[in-house]
Write a sequence for this structure.
């Protein structure tokens, strides 16, 4: 429940005014809407006053040119590589079609309700994730801090996957009139134990490395590990930089920079291509896949229901974690995208549409992947389970191996890796935009100037590129996996989402959030969401968190290499750095607020809202625009 608020004089007495100025440097964001009207539809422009500057001209805070651009940006960020390489694998692993039951349950009770919070809060406050949570309750500003730290780490390692894809794309383009380089032995990177999966007669003699003759390694694996990665013995042996990958990483970062350098209006134009074109390529690959011999075996294997698996808690945990990964919640980027909306935009409608497209893309991608895996299994005379993998193994070993068994192999390799590049790059540049937006809002009169925006974007991309070089060394794969396993892990995301639901459902109040939504879109959203925010979502999140913590296993690579203790400790520290943002900021805020314990809690849990954000029937919340 939100307690009674007080005026500015009382705020200063309790220290909350100074506190808000510390954390809300963009508190001069103006929203020129008529105050306390039930529905705001006119004059939806947004300005940031350049107070204290020599010029009195207001600085324009950008907004989306069209609602479609906002939706495509959300789809581009949410629909990522996990939809292609993680969901299909989890589906077959956890009972095929039966896995859709826990997936849909978690989607309706956790994914969509929390996704709605982030889109709605961004639009409601028209400010970045670093400060928006504090507008509902100052003590919970740490949610934005944690999200920012997670996104910072994510941006460093996620783009490395795109560098790998770019490396394969270039190799495929160079082989357009010949054989793909991973199709044969006899190359300078191959060893004497190299073994191609095609015999001289053209028949496949084994399915994967485990089925190769003793002491031999598949040519596809040697290309990946010995040529592309130049993999060392462990994280203790970083080796030298693999310059081909470093160049690929540089090129991808340059592309990302030119996607964000001119702000959200420019990025909104880019997503027309990066969010839509991958669907065209995926459709082409699906059509090609279902026409292959054995495709039906893969599709049946993908969706055949095994309802007995529903009694396994791991199936429900996988369903829940997939939703949180797939919906890209807890990163703060969705909230930041929503903050560029007009105040009256129907974000509830957008949430339903984006959620539906996101989940359908996962199913659609599964058909494209498993039709090809069924063909691969038929050609190799093995089961689909023998060739199915998830993660980078699917993209850089299994699928390339399947491609070489198709006619016109270079063409299909080009299409596949170009699709991977596009699917990943819009997720990457939206995440970069999501990290830069809070920085722009912290220093609006400097950072919203076009020239300063370009320079700061370039500086951030350059720093991230240099940090990413640690992952394109000969030991870089071990560093990459360390980041992937710990920094943006399911535990970290679930932790952030738990506090999001606590804040909205209990501290601010779920019914107040529904009122705020009605203020924006002109109608009330279903009470189901209030029930989820208050009870169902926190309960499911805590259950999954508990299971993951009990079942936690230290990181290994390829199930054989065990990371040393110092590396495991470093990974845990990366995770804790993001998670601790919430309790640390809470305690700091509570400590620096004066008064008794009850008075402090009342102050740090009371919203900081402007007149236009307060419905007329809220008698326990006053206009605190003077303190913003």
């Amino acid at each position: 429940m939100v307690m009674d608020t007080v005026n500015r004089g009382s705020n200063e007495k309790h220290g909350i005014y100074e506190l808000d100025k510390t954390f809300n440097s963009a508190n001069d964001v103006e929203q020129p809407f008529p105050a306390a009207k039930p529905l705001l539809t006119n004059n939806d422009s947004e300005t940031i006053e350049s107070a204290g500057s020599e010029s009195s001209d207001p600085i324009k805070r950008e907004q989306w040119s069209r609602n479609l651009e906002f939706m495509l940006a959300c789809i581009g960020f949410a629909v990522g590589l996990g939809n292609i390489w993680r969901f299909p694998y989890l589906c077959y692993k956890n009972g095929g079609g039966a896995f859709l039951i826990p997936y849909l349950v978690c989607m309706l009770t956790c994914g969509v309700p929390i996704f709605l919070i982030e889109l709605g809060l961004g639009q409601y406050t028209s400010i970045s994730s670093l400060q928006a949570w504090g507008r509902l309750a100052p003590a919970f500003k740490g949610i934005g801090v944690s999200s920012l730290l997670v996104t910072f780490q994510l941006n460093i390692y996620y783009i490395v996957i795109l560098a790998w894809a770019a490396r394969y794309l270039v190799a495929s383009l160079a082989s357009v009139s010949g054989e793909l380089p991973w199709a044969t032995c006899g190359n300078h990177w191959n060893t004497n134990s190299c073994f191609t999966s095609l015999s001289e007669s053209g028949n496949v003699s084994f399915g994967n490395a485990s089925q190769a003759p003793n002491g031999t390694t598949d040519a596809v694996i040697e290309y990946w590990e010995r040529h592309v990665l130049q993999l060392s013995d462990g994280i203790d042996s970083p080796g030298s930089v693999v310059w081909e990958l470093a160049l690929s990483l540089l090129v991808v970062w340059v592309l990302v920079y030119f996607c964000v350098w001119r702000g959200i209006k420019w990025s909104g134009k880019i997503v027309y291509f990066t969010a839509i074109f991958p669907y065209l390529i995926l459709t082409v690959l699906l059509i090609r896949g279902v026409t292959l011999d054995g495709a039906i075996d893969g599709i049946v294997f993908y969706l055949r229901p095994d309802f007995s698996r529903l009694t396994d808690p791991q199936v429900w945990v996988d369903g829940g974690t997939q939703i949180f990964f797939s919906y890209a919640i807890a990163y703060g980027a969705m909230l930041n995208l929503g903050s560029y909306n007009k105040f009256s935009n129907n974000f509830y409608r957008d949430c339903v549409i984006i959620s539906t497209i996101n989940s359908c893309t996962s199913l659609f991608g599964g058909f494209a992947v498993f039709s090809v895996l069924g063909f691969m299994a038929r050609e190799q005379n093995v089961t689909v389970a023998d060739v199915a993998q998830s993660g980078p193994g699917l993209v850089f070993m299994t699928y390339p191996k399947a491609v070489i068994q198709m006619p016109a192999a270079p063409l299909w390799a080009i299409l596949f890796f170009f699709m991977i590049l596009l699917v990943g790059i819009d997720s990457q540049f939206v995440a970069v935009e999501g990290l830069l937006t809070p920085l722009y809002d912290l220093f609006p009169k400097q950072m919203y100037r076009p020239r300063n925006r370009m320079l700061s974007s370039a500086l951030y991309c350059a720093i991230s590129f240099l940090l990413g070089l640690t992952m394109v060394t000969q030991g870089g794969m071990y560093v990459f996996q360390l980041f992937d396993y710990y920094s943006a892990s399911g535990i970290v995301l679930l932790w952030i989402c738990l506090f999001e639901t606590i804040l909205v459902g209990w501290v601010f109040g779920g019914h107040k959030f529904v009122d705020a939504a009605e203020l924006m879109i002109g109608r009330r959203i279903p009470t189901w969401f209030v029930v989820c925010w208050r009870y169902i979502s926190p309960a499911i999140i805590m259950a999954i968190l508990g299971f993951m913590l009990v079942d936690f296993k230290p990181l290994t690579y390829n199930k054989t290499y065990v990371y040393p203790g110092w590396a495991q400790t470093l990974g845990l520290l990366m995770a804790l750095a993001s998670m601790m943002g919430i309790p640390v900021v809470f305690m700091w805020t509570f400590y620096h607020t004066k008064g008794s314990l009850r008075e402090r809690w009342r102050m740090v849990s009371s919203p900081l809202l402007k007149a236009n954000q307060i419905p007329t029937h809220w008698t326990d919340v006053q206009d605190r625009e003077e303190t913003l």
About this structure: The first helix runs from residue 8 to 14.
